[in-house]
Amino acid sequence: MLICAACAVERDEPTPDDCPICTDERQYVSQDGQQWLTLDALAQQGQQTIVQENEPGLFGIRTEPKVGIGQTSQLVVTGWGSLLWDPVGYVDEHALQAVRERGPVLAVAASHPHMFGVQVEWSHRLGGVPVLIAEADRRWVGRNDPAIEYWSGSRTITEGLTLHQTGGHFPGSAVVHWAAGAAGKGVLLTGDSVYPNPDRRSIAFMRSYPNHLPLSASVAMRIAQQLGELGFDRIYGNFNNVIASGAKAVLQDSAQRHAAWVRGDFDHLT
Ligand SMILES: [Zn+2]
Ligand SMILES: [Zn+2]
After folding, report:
1. What distance in angstroms lies between residue 114's CA and the mean position of ligand 2's atoms?
2. Ligand 2 is a single-atom ion; what residues have CB below 5 A from it?
3. In the chain, fewer beta carbons within 10 Å around the N or the C end?
4. Domains of the chain (ranges plus CATH)?
5. How far is residue 3's CA from residue 12's CA, in Å, rounded to a whole number?
6. Which of 97, 90, 98, 121 is nearest to 108 (CA)?
7. pLDDT tens digit sequence for 133-158
């Protein structure tokens, strides 16, 4: 297994000359060209994992220095087991111990293919727990494994913890709804289809972030309408970007604003 240095998604050997995820229009190949990493080489370079509590029952796991895109994984812990979301592109005993001591892992899942990380490696190290992949994004799986299960629409992990496919950034893009999060007001964990902005009071809806390609008005509105039916007050993105409260209104307002801009309502300002 090799790991793409740019996106940190694992891939079966022999690897292709270029990473399919990075050559897609949503990402990019580094000026230095395609490079592949191994877990051993990263460990020898002093790679570390950092685990931090975001709120009771929710733990961020990130790599220091960052591996690939550098997302923060989220471990959602419930009384029935946990979900590892957007797994990072590296795994070590420190992170595994932090995950294991918080109870059994029910599944590993990612918001979209940029966030696959070393998902199968995490599964193996956790005893072969299911790796959930949206059927619509099957073609982006780089490392095949019997632990992979395909799903569509919505998928209940356990009581109060559900994946919802929204599409958008990728056709299989998904969010997690965690009903008990934010002191019972509800939490969404999102990827790039619903991206909390640096201002912490608005959300972006993009096909590509590095290459600045927006989604359409109708797709932004569709996603906001779908998620508006869930109960939540807080949204965590996958880069420590958070809408701490009032997130449902922020999502609706942001979709309206996005739609207005891409529709041309504000062309007089340009
Ligand atoms: Zn890549
Ligand atoms: Zn992405």
Report:
1. 5
2. 114, 192
3. C
4. 2-40+53-269 (3.60.15.10)
5. 9
6. 121
7. 999 999 999 999 999 999 999 999 99
